[in-house]
Amino acid sequence: MLFIGQAANYTKKALYRHLFTIGLPQDSERLRQYLAKRYQGDIKHVALFNNGRSALAMALKMSLPRNSKVVTSGFTCQAVLEAIKGARCVPIYADIEPKTLHFTADILRQLLTKHPDIKAIIIQNTLGNPVDIVAIEKLAKTHQLVLIEDLAHCTGMTYADGREAGTVGDFTALSFGKNKSIDTITGGALVVRKPDLPPIQQPTKRPSFAASFRARWYPVFGAIARALSRPHTQRLAHFFLGACVRLHLIERSADAKLNLNTRLSHWQAKLALNQLQTTLKKSHFPLRQHYFVYDRDDCLESLLLAGFDFAETWYDVPISPARYYAKTHFPEAECPVATLAAKHIINVPRFYSTKELKPALDIIKQFEISELSPALSKTNLWEKILQNDPTANFLQSPAYAKTQQLLGNQVLVRIFNQRGAALMTIRKAKRGRYLEIAGGPLIDWQNTKTIKASFKLIRALARKYHCVFVRFRPQLLNTPANRKILRQLQATPAQMHLAAEHTVILDLTQPEETILANFRRQTRYEVRRADRLGIQVTSGNSLELFKEFHAVQAKTAARQHFIPPNLKTLLAEREGFGDQAKIYVARTTTGEPIAYGLILIFGQEAIYYEAASTELNRKLPGAYALQWQVIRDLKNLGIKRYNLWGIAPPNQPNHRYAGVTLFKTGFGGEVTEYIPAHDIIIHKHRYRLTYLFETIRKKWRHL
């Protein structure tokens, strides 16, 4: 598995060097001399600190009075905020532009108009993306602002005008923390580039033994955690890291304390100098490549299932980390781009080879978006896919997802790309847990690459959630070509059906007279007879009506020997589909109920989902009156298709649905046969029991 964190950037050689390097006072002196020369300062103006935030705080304390306003990026970390507040200054957040993840000269100009008393600017070149330093430097000089360059992400980077980062501002602050461009786990430095300032106060306090131990051994603990992060030992890895944090063997980056009196360890100074000299020779920026994705959680999960643990994102909230975010009181309304970027950004490290990262980049591209938008969300994209996919159906809709959640089922929604999605439900059965995809997935079934990528993720999710198999029934016609696609997926036909594989669909775009003319003669007769008998059909969505329907359906099931949905399921459908779920009732002139039908509407299609009837339905054409009223109502609503939902397969007179098939086909329409449910086996031995159980049940239920 490839990681961003846990010292993944440390090779074995770097790990051993870090663990066994011995430092002396002259190593710290050499580092100070090198920094003074590289960043064009005087050695008396160079100091080494135990962390980067202390160096940044010292720059502010030396140059500004208390309560001075300091501009910083609205997309940064807690360390910068702590440095500003530690220097008794006030942070002014600047919104960013997405390409560099930093504020521009124009954004800075607007802030200076709003806050003319700003005294300083911190430039951080986020992830090593260079800002337009010429324009920002010009503004700083015009308004006599202190310019501080924070090199945490960009040591060795060059601006567009050829100057190296750190050679422009009044102060150059460096951080040597975890995953920074110079990484010695902890540490920092400050170079004062204003010769008129007095010599910098040198920190002299030695780091505590515990702090030194944590810094020295962190790469080792990280290597152990990475080694344990295998499918069967991942919990052990999390336990190990958690224990290290609780025992104070590991210090999380944001938890470092501001301390202007504690110096950098000599051995870390030696390592930092070595890295600085190497960075000067071969620097590669940006430090991480960033992308924007529509759903970061899903993208990270997909990456993790493929062996990429890239969850340590810079930054998952505008002022990272998330555990401290509420305390920052960040003005999201003033920094909308930074707020959006923090929700959608994902970044990839550069310390892996292009070949190693290619599978990860292929996954990220499936989730990638071209631009940030306030309207961007997983739900919006899901609904857009549903609108554009001709095979989209209510079983893949948000309403169905809500219904399943109300029933206590775990629902997974995954967007595969801009055109593909799947609503999946984890079913808990005695024969084994399985992942169900009814009416889906919604993907381009003509694109082999898309099919393989989508089902690779589906299989991985099934394994993650300990499923025995995946059962799916896409909304594809049962043709040889489509059956071949499923064989290529190594899917096997399921023993049980899934969601009305045989049905009748009426085209409601035709005139009412044409629809009626297409009815079977006996069906037309019964519709007209119902009219002569004065049978009335009404519809509603009330709780009382659903309860009434349930009571009648229970009696219907007892007569006709089928298993009805329980009341909880019906009420979940009512709440999940809202006003798109209606119960129609056909009654006699005296108000006695004859027949009931539960109609669900999704998009341009309506579904005759459940039915019930009383003994009167044997004598009176209530069901015919009900269907004719439904058809007319749906036409008035502009619905294009009416799915009568479930008939018997051809040539199966003993099938459970044989009785209703004659009734439903009497309304005309097209008999449609979808490809049958198929299973993708995850655990072979446990699946055999499922297969045997379902074979017996299928025969017993006459399916």
If you had to describe this structure to a student in words, what would you say it looks like?
The chain contains 24 helices and 26 strands. Strands 2-9-8-7-6-3-5 form a 7-stranded mixed beta sheet, with helices on both faces. A hairpin with a 2-residue loop joins β22 and β23. The protein is elongated and about 105 Å long. The model has no long low-confidence stretch (mean pLDDT 92).
Sheet/helix structural class: alpha/beta
Using the CA coordinates, give the radius of gyration.
33 Å
Distance between the termini: 46 Å
Considering DSSP H and I runs of 4 or more, what fraction of the residues is helical? 40-55%
Biggest β-sheet description:
7 strands, mixed
Unreliable stretches: none
- Individual helix count: 24
DSSP strand count: 26
The general outline is: elongated
Question: Taking all residues together, what is the mean pLDDT?
Answer: 92
